[in-house]
Write a structure and sequence with these properties.
5-stranded parallel sheet; binds phosphoric acid mono(formamide)ester; 2 domains; 4-stranded parallel sheet; 11 strands; alpha/beta
Length: about 350
């Protein structure tokens, strides 16, 4: 490869968000003396990534460490996914998840078989997901699937023997999005990694949305419960009386992190350090916008150093007037997706050893 091509690849991999905060991976890496918890990542080899509850704090931090390394160094020359084929099977619309997974694979020299719409498969002729899973066993080494049916995971796994990465299942979970969200937060404030985060660095999280029916929000909160030393309170702001839902009720009750539910955003907004906002819910077999009366814009009463996360796509709940402010962590959050997905794929496909110069504790 010529120097010119290598430089073009390095520059393209370093491309980041155009507006809002720019997060450096170096500070996060330096907080661990540049070391990666390889043992925690090795546990992921051959595993499916289905729900956030399969992670502990150590693994979330290890994935963030490797993501930071991949973001800060040009590892393309190591070709860590050479010879591997990823199948991205998307039976539901996506901008970020499918394309960032595919970019992650291609940048590390793997290959992609892409199903951008389930209607181009035998589903259109009545084929079952279980039979499609059987076919995938011979076509690829890992399957990344999004599907509107919450039960799709069990269905495809009736026959699928390859690792499956859940890229969003109905109103179920979106575990890789939650890892991306936490990667952004840990880069923004590396002290949050510590079980003994200094008091002045601990955060009050506000959730504007309905975790019970919004998979990305639900998965984010689930990971937040791992950071007991860093999250001092979680406030859910929702139009609904019970926005939390069955999956989260018990974990929230059992967590030492205090939780409250309010419906007036004005009373709590000035106290929040991190605001996670989303309005799109997947209910039954279609999208709906919930919590539409809550809107954030440049006139919202935010703490001066508060940051906003949003899994995107957005609607009117998040005004473009915030894009050029330091409250905007959502573009940096989205920009980190390729590196988190690379870290996951390298770990699941057991190719950590092909990345040169990883130093371990
Ligand atoms: N965050 C997210 O899941 O975005 P897409 O729906 O565009 O994949």
């Amino acid at each position: 490869m010529s120097d010119q091509v290598a430089r073009a690849i390095a520059l393209s991999a370093a491309a980041t968000n155009s507006k809002g905060q720019h997060l450096s991976p170096t500070e996060l890496l330096n907080s661990f003396d540049g070391k990666i918890d390889r043992d925690a990542l090795k546990e992921l080899a051959g595993q499916s990534i289905l729900e956030p509850r399969q992670f502990d704090r150590r693994t979330v931090v290890a994935i963030a460490q490797l993501s930071a390394l991949l973001e800060s160094r040009n590892v393309e020359m190591d070709k860590p996914l050479d010879g591997k084929i990823a199948i991205t099977a998307f039976f539901e619309a996506s901008t970020r998840t499918r394309l960032s997974f595919e970019s992650a694979v291609l940048r590390l020299d793997g290959k992609v078989l892409s199903v951008p719409d389930g209607q181009v498969t035998g589903i259109a002729k009545g084929e079952s997901l279980a039979d499609i899973g059987e076919m995938f066993n011979t076509y690829g080494d890992v399957v990344i699937m999004r599907h509107p049916d919450t039960n799709c995971i069990d269905e495809i796994r009736k026959n699928l023997q390859r690792p499956l990465i859940n890229a969003g299942n109905g109103s179920g979970h979106h575990p890789t999005q939650a890892l991306i969200d936490w990667y952004a937060l840990l880069k923004w404030r590396p002290e949050l990694c510590s079980p003994n985060c200094p008091e002045e660095k601990r955060v009050h999280l506000g959730i504007i949305g309905t975790p019970g029916s919004m998979r990305a929000v639900k998965s984010f909160v689930r990971l937040a419960l791992l950071f007991t030393g860093a999250v001092k309170k979680i406030t859910v702001i929702s139009e609904l009386a019970d926005p939390v839902g069955l999956d989260l009720n018990e974990p929230l009750e059992e967590s030492p992190i205090p939780t409250e539910i309010v419906n007036d955003v004005r009373e709590v907004l000035p106290h929040l350090d991190v605001i996670y906002v989303n309005s799109i819910a997947f209910l039954g077999d279609s999208y709906r916008n919930l919590d539409t009366r809550y809107k954030l814009d440049q006139d919202s009463e935010l703490k001066s150093d508060a940051v906003i996360l949003h899994p995107l796509a957005r609607n009117e709940e998040l005004s473009e007037s915030l894009d050029c402010t330091d409250h905007n962590l959502y573009f940096a959050q989205a920009a980190g997706a390729v590196f988190v997905r690379q870290a996951l794929l390298v770990s699941v496909l057991d190719r950590l050893d092909q990345i040169s110069g990883i130093s371990t504790p």
